[in-house]
Amino acid sequence: MKQKLTLWLLNRCVDWAINDETMYTALTVNFAPQLGRRVRRTGAGPSAPHCVEIPVNDQEDGAPGELMHEGKGLPKNSTKPPAYDEYFVEVPLKCLGLPSRQGWAKTPYWQTNASPAGLERLAELDAHTAQRFPGGRDLEAARVAKGTCFGDVVMNLDTSEKTLGYYELLQRTKAQTQAMNVLIGYSQGGTVARYLAFLDEQVVKPKLRCIHSIVTVQSPNRGSALASHDKIKDTSRAFIAMALSVAGWLPQPLDLTNPLWVYLTQEQEKGNLIDFINGFIDAEMNSWPALPRSSPLKQGWLEARKWLSGLSDVKELAFFDLDPENLDETGSVLHAINHYPLTQTQHGAVIGSDNSMPDLIGALLHDATWWLQLVDSIAAGIIDKLVVPAGGIYGDQVMSFPPPEAGKSAPVLQTISDEYEHGVPAGTYGLTTALAPHAHDFVIPSASELLLPISNAHLGNVVNPAASHISGAHLWTQDPPNDEMIVLDLINKLRDDVNAPPFPQPEPGDGEALLSQPVRAAARLRPPKPPGRAPPAKASGGAPAKRPKKPSSKAKSPRRPASGSKAKGSGSKAARSSPRRRRKN
After folding, report:
1. Which has fewest Cβ within 10 Å: 129, 215, 327, 541?
2. In the chain, what is the straight-line distance between the N-terminal and C-terminal CA atoms, in Å?
3. Is 56 helix (H, G, I), strand (E, B) or coil?
4. Are strands 211-217 and 180-186 parallel, antiparallel or unpaired?
């Protein structure tokens, strides 16, 4: 009999489940899965197929699989933000629930469910939280920092569920279904999944564990410079310099003594340039009220705005938990997930490393109006020449890690900083593909996305050189593979538990055998492709197989996103000579 599992998704992985059932279908090969779904406690809408419903929400039902509420259950053409956006809620608060006045270690739920060692971990978290909020939380500061284009910075929970956190919700799911939980998270969602796995292994009593496995996709598991309060000045100056470089007005060389850089530094001291940039993005998005939030162009703006809110230095936002300076701070989220490696929870990571600025422009314009695409096609060489210097500034000034504070020991931060500056060779951390110096996906340094292989519970660190933080989440392409296809390969490696033998794998030899079992199973359940299209080519060389595209009611020509750059940072000679991104037909 197959083991039962409940699949939960976080952040943009939810969009994959909305568009198709490939991940669910992949799990059906070796397991008996279902999707978790949060719904309103009163007045829930129609049930969704393959879902176990957990009635805890206040407003808005969640989408199938959606653990971290971001309004994914709203209509795809919605132009308004959700009522709540749990993305911004600090990570411990949304994972552990509302603490008592004495902290989480004294909360009734955790007093009952935590082991003695787990209560010690919670006491460390409480001490760290007391330092983080010496005067208490200022929720209004968080609302101002996240701007006007997102839902409220509180949990979408019914009044009877206000103390609930994700971990307790997962335990309820297991109690209701007798199934362990599988978590797959994109970006911050993957780090939230990894922190939940920490709670499962290190905090709760062993007999109460409820997480089977996790996969993180382009996640800041070791922090991101875009969440560092020490990078505010560097980042704000760099964005202005990038804008000038595109216009061809950037003086050379640009260093700390250059009059332009000195002026930007002085203006940063007078007022926060990041506040100006965030206000500009808010105004830009509000100027397009009819543009659906699901459009790639608006998603690009929303993604930038989300992460730049992390540079507002507001500790009530989740970005504080992703500040790499917390790596060496006992009780912090990053310290917990890096100091306590997973040994019982199966886990793997997908790493994005396309840091080509032309590729990013191509991804942002993927579904833009026809005239913008035409301009991009005609002026490709000119646009590339203008934006490549901006890519170099971005990699050098924005993505680099801040130095440790003077006189403070920060060995983990220093290690990751060195790996970003010098790259990570193939073979290290189980990588089959090396990470080049200054490799990043425009939001997270690639070295930060790794999950360190400490035990046989590790499924692998798989690099997707074609994935920026924008393109990696989309399912536009089959060749090069998108992130979902790599996740399917990691799902195929899951076992009943860490001590169980692996399930039979396809025999190598012919092309059909190179297609992973979950991908073939998913293809069998899909409707036939529209006539007139050639069948997908079979995979070769052991690469993830091409996944059949979802048929559409409208005739469309096949689209390809920006292809990935396997070269060094966008400002490097290798990047400047790299082939032009693929154009849509």
Report:
1. 541
2. 48
3. strand
4. parallel
> Exposure pattern of 341-358 as b/e (b: 16+ CB <10 Å)?
bbebbbbbbbbbbbbbbb
Q: Which two tokens stand for residue 86?
A: 């749990």
State the pLDDT at residue 368.
55
- pLDDT for position 277: 78
Residue type, 76: K
- Once rounded to an integer, what is the mean pLDDT over residues 7-25? 91
- 3-state secondary structure string, 257-287? CCHHHHHHHHHHHHCCHHHHHHHHHHHHHHC
Nearest in space to 217 (alpha carbons), one of 191, 180, 181: 191
Do 516 and 545 meet the contact criterion of CB atoms below 8 Å apart?
A: yes
Please say if the pLDDT value at position 67 is more than 90. yes
Sign of CA dihedral 510, 511, 515, 517: negative
Residue 265: pLDDT over 70: no
Asked whether the predicted pLDDT for residue 576 surpasses 50, the reply is: no
Average pLDDT of the chain to the nearest whole number = 80
Q: What are the backbone dihedrals phi and psi of residue 443, each rounded to the nearest 5 degrees, phi first?
A: -125, -35
* One-letter-per-residue 3-state SS of 129-197: HHHHCCCCCCHHHHHHHHCCCCCECCCCCCHHHCCCCHHHHHHHHHHHHCCEEEEEEECHHHHHHHHHH
CA–centroid distance for 100 within its chain: 30
